[in-house]
Amino acid sequence: MPQFRPLAVAALLLAGSLPPAMAQLTALIPKVKPAVVVVGSWRATDNPRLGFRGTGFVVGDGRRVLTNAHVLPEALPSEAAAPLAIGIPRRRGEGAEVRRATLLALDRRHDLALLAIEGTPLPTLPLAAAREVPEGTEVGFTGFPIGGALGYSPVTHRGIVSAVTPASLPQASAQQLSNQAIRELREGPFELYQLDATAYPGNSGSPVFDAASGEVVAVLNMVFVKAGRESALTQPSGISYAIPIAHAHELLRRASASSGAALPAASTLPSKSLTD
């Protein structure tokens, strides 16, 4: 049985001596969390009815959600399959409001997907400009690290951009080259941000935001696993990877071009800093 001990006294003692970056993150988290949603499927006869697949975050006009392509089913839902849905967490992890979602645009190469959702607009996150983030930049990311096991309450982790690295890592021999790696060699590599931060499988699709401005600089998409899949939970490596936000800008532009005025162009996405 896990043991939980009160930390209120320690928190009070430390509150007056937080370093600037930590204090800034403390102010940002309440602004980030309302825009972070569960991405999954929904069917009334399933248990649970909301099937968790990953994390997403709201952008643009408040009815668009960015997530990872690998979070979605391999094939588009059929009549018999559970439809795509997002879950909007209620306060204190007390379940989630569910809304139906549809796929607007997909970029499997960069592991990104854009969804449209029904209902009133949700709070959005500002996207950073499409430029490389310097190594050493302090970042945070918010998502659902182990799904709904502890309730749908967004969790924030922090770290730094420790390296800018190729998406396809070198292989020891030709026999180890995957189809994805071969495709990268043909099309040319693109770069990922390597983060010095602990993430878990449910964090896929989480917004990675600059800890100073709150702007989203990347989308978390994978973790380095030292052994089997179980070790991602029991022995996390502390190494995670994220897709630079430039590729999300391109996906938004493509979706805007294919749907006319229905989607805001990337240049019209909110640019106001969350620190304002």
TrEMBL record:
SUPFAM superfamilies: Trypsin-like serine proteases (SSF50494)
Pfam family, one: Trypsin_2
Keywords: Signal
Cleaved signal peptide residues: 1-23
Source organism, top-level taxon: Bacteria
PANTHER family: PROTEASE DO-LIKE 5, CHLOROPLASTIC, SERINE ENDOPROTEASE DEGS
The name this protein goes by in its record: Trypsin-like peptidase domain-containing protein
